[in-house]
Amino acid sequence: MASMAAAFASTAPAAHGHRHGLRPHPPSLSLRTHFSPPSAGRRGGGSGLRVRSGLIEPDGGRLAQLVVEEPLRRARTRESLTLPRVKLSRIDLEWVHVLSEGWASPLRGFMRESEFLQTLHFNALRLADGAVVNMSVPIVLAVDDADRHMIGESSKVALFDANDNPTAILSNIEIYKHPKEERIARTWGTTAPGLPYVEEAITNAGNWLIGGDLEVLEPIKYEDGLDRFRLSPANLREEFTRRNADAVFAFQLRNPVHNGHALLMTDTRRRLLEMGYKNPILLLHPLGGFTKADDVPLSWRMKQHEKVLEDGVLDPETTVVSIFPSPMHYAGPTEVQWHAKARINAGANFYIVGRDPAGMGHPVEKRDLYDADHGKKVLSMAPGLERLNILPFKVAAYDKTQGKMAFFDPSRPQDFLFISGTKMRTLAKNKESPPDGFMCPGGWKVLVDYYDSLAPADNGKVPEAVPA
Amino acid sequence: MASMAAAFASTAPAAHGHRHGLRPHPPSLSLRTHFSPPSAGRRGGGSGLRVRSGLIEPDGGRLAQLVVEEPLRRARTRESLTLPRVKLSRIDLEWVHVLSEGWASPLRGFMRESEFLQTLHFNALRLADGAVVNMSVPIVLAVDDADRHMIGESSKVALFDANDNPTAILSNIEIYKHPKEERIARTWGTTAPGLPYVEEAITNAGNWLIGGDLEVLEPIKYEDGLDRFRLSPANLREEFTRRNADAVFAFQLRNPVHNGHALLMTDTRRRLLEMGYKNPILLLHPLGGFTKADDVPLSWRMKQHEKVLEDGVLDPETTVVSIFPSPMHYAGPTEVQWHAKARINAGANFYIVGRDPAGMGHPVEKRDLYDADHGKKVLSMAPGLERLNILPFKVAAYDKTQGKMAFFDPSRPQDFLFISGTKMRTLAKNKESPPDGFMCPGGWKVLVDYYDSLAPADNGKVPEAVPA
């Protein structure tokens, strides 16, 4: 993965002198107007007029970094062996990872009830100083009746991973009821059976939630060959600073990149340059945690992204590819806020939002679960995200007259071909080629190889990916 | 209803000179601390330290008052006859009433999509100036496909009541999808069948919502003998000012008042006096809109409240009894915010919140729908309600040693008798008496008469009221 490695070859923490004295950002209010986000007229308060220098501040002013420092590590590990033990699921561990690096700043551990309730009802947390930060998905740890009994009156527990290694300590714990139905209804706007995260992490989880302050014994690693792409918010901030970025625009994805995506990202950089930024950097940020069975797995997506950079579709000089460790909820307008908020903590001040972000088909009815426009509308109005510039996705399609992906021109619809996820999947499965210019050949080959690698099920069907 | 009439005998609008120069309120932060609301440590921002004079300001600074003034009434009525017509259900009309008098200030009509989405996701609206007001239940008007077709490109519609009288004009309309499942899930935290408001007003409602600016042709009246008790927020503010109130504490109820409630209200006044207020006024504010079939009907509740005042359980001099025109959602922590917010608009700066406010049994499972403590917790953290002092309900029970209702003393639990709603109901149905001192005899007789008036169903069962 030469290109990607090059893109962040020198990000070892503290390996570089930070260059200070970045150009002040242009006033962000004018940016919002230029991009005409849906909220342009609603923000008010004037805070957008403040001219900032350096990267956008993390929520709460400081990145939560919860990995125990070396001098204390051995003592904490010893202590963990003496405490009541809670076993972490794969998704629990992903949340430990997310919390440990400060993606959810200012959260410093699994939510206590007051944070859980604010998340469910308001998608935001009020801090002690009165400031409001966005927080739309519950980051909670479930325990069952037996765990609760075993924990007893202890004020601390140790969290153990699937291999029974001590991973973290949770202190000043609070145990409270896990209102599953209400959590699901308020997070997803439905309680229909078949929501992937719910089936994986909620339905069979315990009836209690345990919140507290988290100390993680060692940086979380997965040993899957991809750990070097898992840059923390602090790593990313160092990288953006090293590159002298004066704007960072984040693109969340969980699907293969086609040339329509690439066009959008390239065009966004062009527009940021036009606005007066000197060095806008793209954070191409595939989601690395839990995804549903029919999504393309992370390792294949990373191969595909590598090819996209190698083939020169995106410029490695102005692109950082890294993995976002969060699990996926598929909770549409609620989840897109989390995706955006976490990227603020990584230093992004622009966030690209597409049609139906974090959406999926309704698990029971024949329709999409969410209105395709609600995601960007909700994002543009969300409390705690006022500092972030929301960039609505322009629709790209295959322009038959140019033989390449281009922004859709409604004055000549007959010239455009919309290649749906289903179409793309069918082509890749059948080892057919998409129209020239839809995706770089190297990237397409990865997709074909992925479907080739799947052992067909008895009925000849293979899992379906939805690369929209 | 002599006592109640006396309580607001002279509230005809503009009949009195307002007395200005009310004592400034004591700093509200100290009040919060004194009462130890759950949020005492979380508010921050210092706004609670501001010393205010006069009644609390309405949300958005000004009461929305949407009834057309006399000189324009005839012209608007004529215009309404020329517009596409939308028929109002009983609950729709109750919302027209609520909106027309400014209970939902600063809303000036049925919600457009941006307000609807903010309500569902954030329980709050951001205003043009950046200020945030609470808004937790959607105030929306549904129309069906045929209505939508009939409205066509018109920018206005006329709203007609059940008797085909023109009631209001909705202007600058916006028609958008009615995502029923999502609305229900996010408002109630469940989609279980059997939610009373859902069955009455959503399940069979149209698939579109229509928002816009409301002009109501005449004040809404129900001609049920109770209109004189339906004071608008403006009327109530006049009454509180006339009485020289320096604190107004609101008590929402939809059930008969027993002596435990009365004790709580009397005790609240005593504590407010201790804090330095000179004339705290109680707003005893029964909900008058849609309620579920097994609640005691409004007319019987008003008779019961009258007896409570007549019997001297509450002091008419310091109590205003009035009807709150909103329909009931039974949406627990979400709805209690609406109940509180609407009372700010009526001038209340203290709000008493009990166990499980606006709660009910789960319609399908054998449990309460909401955690009994979530209501007061959510209320204490709700965006836009920072100005309101939340007074958590103290638990009252029948003290056998004193032969009266008293605050529960956990050091001698054996002395207390908890008289459940079911117990109270059974006694009233069987024309038995509760323990002396549970409810004033006149009030109890009203309840017995109510159950007596019900024609027993074939199986001998009568509808069950839940007076908790």
Task: Provide a descriptive summary of the structure in words.
Two copies of one chain form a homodimer. With 468 residues, chain A is α/β, with parallel strands linked by helices. The first copy, chain A, is built from 15 helices and 15 strands. The first copy, chain A, has helices spanning 2-7, 28-35, 70-80, 90-101, 113-122, 145-151, 180-188, 196-201, 233-242, 259-274, 298-310, 332-345, 374-381, 421-429, 441-453; strands at residues 85-87, 124-126, 132-134, 142-143, 156-160, 166-177, 208-216, 247-253, 280-286, 319-321, 350-353, 389-392, 396-399, 404-407, 416-417. In chain A, the strands form four sheets. A five-stranded mixed beta sheet of chain A has the order 1-5-6-7-4. A five-stranded parallel beta sheet of chain A has the order 10-9-8-11-12, with helices on both faces. Chain A has a three-stranded antiparallel beta sheet with strand order 14-13-15. The first copy, chain A, is globular, with a radius of gyration of 22 Å. Chains A and B meet through helix 5, helix 7 and helix 13 of A and helix 5, helix 7 and helix 13 of B.
Helix content of chain A: 25-40%
Intertermini distance of chain A: 24 Å
How many individual β-strands of chain A?
A: 15
The overall pLDDT of chain A, averaged over residues, is 87
